[in-house]
Amino acid sequence: MVEFDDIFFKAKDGEVYRMVIEAIEKPLIESVLARVDGNKLQAAKILGLNRNTLHSKIKRLGIRVKDWRS
Asked: Tell me, what's the pLDDT at 15?
């Protein structure tokens, strides 16, 4: 689990938000993909994202969707 106090004290000014998002975004997307058996359209709906936005995030974060398909 991420200790937010550690993030706040180690971050440079203006970087806290980015650091928190980076720590949470990939596990969140992976968790949702696992729940919907890798269905990106369903995952996008659950996350409240456009499917193209989700696709971009998956690519940027290096998430392998096939790992979540049953």
From this structure: 79
Q: Rounded to an integer, what distance in angstroms lies between the CA atom of residue 31 and that of residue 25? A: 10
pLDDT at 14 over 80: no
Closest CA to 67 of 41, 40, 42: 40
Model pTM greater than 0.85? no
Q: What does the alpha-carbon distance between residue 59 and residue 70 come to, in Å, rounded to a whole number?
A: 20
pLDDT value of position 66: 86
Please give the C-alpha separations between residue 13 and each of 1, 7, 22, 30, 32, in angstroms, as whole numbers. Answer: 23, 11, 16, 29, 31
Can you tell me the distance from the alpha carbon of 56 to that of 16, in angstroms, rounded to the nearest whole number? 22
Cβ atoms within 10 Å of 68's Cβ, excluding its own: 20
Residue 32 neighbours by CB distance under 10 Å: 20
What one-character DSSP code corresponds to residue 63? -
